[in-house]
Design goal:
alpha+beta, Glutaredoxin, 48% helix, binds FE2/S2 (inorganic) cluster
Length: 166
């Protein structure tokens, strides 16, 4: 850990910038109907996920009970209550990928990244997810990292792909 306190200063400045962005988001939606979802989307863009204290703050701001804010957040798959990785790896387990070895690809991806489905590495390098189809079945088996599709995969080829993303 740095003894000069520089890291702390940077973190404080980042926190302050996020807080200001959240305040302007509140301002933008002040008094508007149906503001909850766009505010949740905006807050997730700012923080990368939706920390509990931010959800409570949103509830206070919109004068909504916490149960409603948490209910909406957990209902929609687009919202995340825990920090996400810098890189999102999606492994397809749909039918076309399954019949061409999708399960083996998934097993190797778990080994390469070191987490299970839906989990994030402690260093926030990767979040691993499974999906039912990535829309490119002709390339099966397929994975996608940060929106980039990799197809016709074999387990031994995965390390090279995974290593490209830091
Ligand atoms: S089933 Fe895997 S891409 Fe469609």
């Amino acid at each position: 850990m740095s003894e000069c306190g520089c890291n702390q200063v940077v973190e404080d400045a980042e926190d302050l910038a996020k807080k200001e962005r959240l305040e302007s988001l509140f301002e933008q939606w002040r008094g508007a109907d149906g503001a909850l979802i766009p505010i949740l989307q905006g807050a997730q863009e700012i923080y990368g996920y939706l920390p509990k204290e931010i959800l409570l703050k949103i509830g206070r701001q919109l004068k909504l009970p916490a149960s409603r804010v948490f209910g909406v957040t957990t209902f929609y798959a687009q919202f995340h209550l825990h920090p996400r990785g810098r890189n999102i790896a999606r492994v397809c387990l749909g039918t076309a990928c399954h019949v061409r070895g999708g399960a083996e690809i998934f097993e190797r991806m778990k080994q390469e990244i070191g987490v299970n489905d839906g989990e994030t590495t402690p260093d926030l390098r990767y979040t691993l997810e499974t999906v039912a189809c990535l829309g490119c079945c002709g390339l099966s088996p397929v994975i996608m990292i940060n929106g980039e599709a990799y197809g016709r995969l074999v387990p031994d080829g995965l390390k090279e792909i995974v290593d490209q993303y830091q």
